[in-house]
Design goal:
heterodimer; A: 326 residues; mainly alpha; two-stranded antiparallel ribbon; 14 helices; 2 strands; B: mainly alpha
Chain lengths: 326, 287
């Protein structure tokens, strides 16, 4: 096999997740709502992969940006316009501005202090949403009215078909962007900062500025995810901003594998499906299952589910086992 | 005398925060494990005590037994779960302990339901005491006394005893500590168990201020982390100061501006962490 056709074959593989997603559209039936939720969570996990996987910003408060996106979309829809794309743009912008602003303050720190600052920022925001009853509905949350048709053409139907394709399209565009960003010189410099910020500073990389920009980009993606969640479920609640949401998305990403093309895809999908099945049996059993999965990820398969697939392929091909990542 | 009430209530609340958080100062600060399961250990202690009290054991005996039991659970957890984590990064530690917390929450929920588990106070702590210029609930005075006693005890143990010296040596340079004959592994197991036991003790005696329910482990975890972070990672005196300061700020906020209390609290935390990223009292050995 020549090198060209091999890379062509590789490229074909990249179509697989999207083909599967389209297959779900045609066969999903009553599960389209769940599918839409999975797509939203994939986007959210992908946003975390940029901040945490690529740039090494250990954040325990990423729900802040998801929540801002969700609330911004909700407020935009109820006060300004029912157009979904305008709402999405506004929410993305709001989240990225907040990401840049909070990032500019907190990214001077690192390690455990940074972890705690991200927690404090998201807790502060959650409290604000709880108190600002007039704007956010407080405990009751917000109910969104009917969204206007997408591009003025495709109305949101009862079965969630439009919603599913809408989420899929947004996810596709963002993952293309993320793909480009992670492989650009900027993305490479983030890789370097994660591995050794001191050395990067020594060779003249403006570390803090790069981190703030990465954080802002990640926040924008998370904001889009939040907006999609709000628009497709037509409701926003305080849960969007909670610590549990921050934890959940971390679990999804790490379960799938950080800094892997489809880690976020696999992790978020498995999580959403497991949660749905387990929650049908017993609403609390999913926490047990997810907790065990998390512990297994750390102890047994460090590179997540996608890493597990890699290891299996290498074992089948008779290659030596790769120990961890560089 | 509203000001005295705020100060005293804040002090009592701060003491509860201190008793629980000081265990985290040990495990996260000294041993450098990102221990997000700390709230879970405190919660297990509270539940065990509530069960014992329900079975007719006296409050104080139940508190002692729960502390002992959680200490033992902590020792087992250190051997089975935490030891493989020491060499791994902060993220792996955070995820592992987060997973452990999920498992504990799910287990307690399936055993006890999602409601609040009440832990009735003994009659001796139920009344009020005359403290000269006014009367004050005995329970809160008890918290203050226990917190102060514990702070003194820990100071003696860590700063003044041979055990403390060994522990500090083992943390700063495990290889050198081993070379001079310190059993570092045993020391870490015992210390971790101690940290968990402190969490459980705080969970039990503070149950009237921080009510027990399965999500306790996550709900108050932020609070404990914040105390440790604001105090300075691994610094007991810092944790003590931070717990009291934050306790008074939070209580004062709730009395004087109930609408803005949470802003005040988290705003203060943000300001403190930004101004003093290494805490109120940075650890001396930090390099």
């Amino acid at each position: 096999m020549t090198a060209l056709s091999e890379s062509g074959l590789r490229r074909l593989w990249h179509g697989l997740p999207w083909a599967l997603a389209l297959l779900v559209y045609f066969t999903g039936g009553g599960y389209l709502g769940l599918g839409t939720h999975a797509l939203v969570m994939i986007l959210f996990a992908l946003s975390l992969d940029l901040a945490l996987g690529q740039a090494g910003i250990i954040t325990m408060g990423h729900a802040a940006f998801f929540g801002i996106g969700a609330y911004a979309a909700g407020i935009f829809a109820s006060h300004l316009s029912a157009d979904p794309l305008l709402g999405l743009a506004a929410a993305t912008l709001a989240a990225s501005l907040f990401g840049l602003l909070s990032g500019a303050f907190i990214l001077h720190t690192a390690g455990v202090t940074l972890m705690m600052l991200t927690l404090a920022v998201s807790a502060l925001l959650a409290e604000f949403a709880n108190q600002a009853h007039g704007l956010t509905g407080g405990d009751d949350g917000l109910q969104l009215g009917r969204m206007a048709p997408l591009l003025g053409l495709f109305g949101f139907d009862l079965w969630g078909k439009t919603a599913y394709l809408y989420a899929l399209a947004v996810l596709f565009l963002w993952s293309l962007a993320a793909w480009r960003i992670m492989r650009s010189p900027f993305g490479r410099s983030l890789d370097g900062i994660r591995q050794n910020p001191r050395r990067m500073r020594a060779i003249g990389t403006p570390v803090w500025r790069r981190l703030v920009v990465a954080y802002g980009l990640s926040a924008a993606m998370a904001g889009s995810a939040g907006a999609l969640e709000a628009q497709t479920t037509r409701s926003v609640g305080l849960g969007a901003l909670s610590v549990l949401t921050s934890g959940t998305v971390l679990v999804m990403l790490v379960l799938g594998g950080t800094r892997r093309s489809y880690g976020a895809f696999l992790g978020a999908t498995v999580y959403v499906v497991v949660q749905d099945f387990a929650a049908e049996i017993d609403p609390f059993r999913w926490m047990f299952v997810i907790g065990l999965l998390l512990m297994a990820v750390v102890l047994i398969f460090e590179n997540g589910l996608t890493g597990l697939g890699d290891a299996a392929r290498r074992a089948l091909a008779g290659l030596p086992r790769r120990s961890g990542r560089p | 005398m509203i000001d005295a009430t705020i100060l005293l209530d804040g002090l009592a609340y701060g003491m509860v925060l201190f008793i629980i958080s000081v265990g985290l100062t040990v495990t996260m600060g000294l041993m450098r494990v990102v221990n997000l399961a700390h709230g879970a250990f405190a919660m297990i202690g509270g539940y065990v005590a509530a069960m014992l009290v329900g079975a007719g054991v006296s409050f104080f005996a139940a508190a002692g037994l729960a502390t002992l039991l959680v200490g033992m659970i902590g020792a087992v957890a250190e051997l089975a779960v935490y030891r493989p984590l020491y060499r791994k990064g902060e993220l792996a530690q955070a995820l592992m302990t987060f997973g452990l917390t999920f498992v504990v929450i799910a287990s307690l929920t399936s055993g006890f339901g999602t409601g609040i588990k009440t832990l009735p106070l003994p009659a001796a702590l139920g009344g009020v005491v005359d403290i000269g210029f006014r009367t004050y609930p005995a329970y809160r005075l008890f918290l203050v006394a226990v917190g102060l006693g514990l702070a003194l005890l820990l100071w003696l143990l860590i700063d003044r005893s041979a055990y403390g010296a060994r522990l500090r040596a083992a943390v700063d340079n495990p290889r050198m500590a081993r070379a001079v004959g310190i059993d570092v592994n045993l020391l870490f197991t015992v210390t971790f168990a101690g940290g968990c036991a402190l969490a459980a003790f705080g969970g039990v005696i503070g149950a009237a201020l921080l009510p027990l329910e399965p999500f306790y482990a996550l709900r108050y975890l932020v609070l404990f982390l914040v105390v440790v972070g604001v105090g300075g990672i691994g610094n007991f005196k810092g944790s003590f100061l931070a717990a009291i300061l934050l306790g008074v700020i939070d209580t004062g906020g709730k009395y004087l501006m109930p609408q803005a209390a949470a802003y005040l609290f988290y705003g203060a935390v943000l300001a403190l962490l930004l101004l003093r990223p290494n805490g109120l009292m940075p650890a001396k050995s930090a390099t």
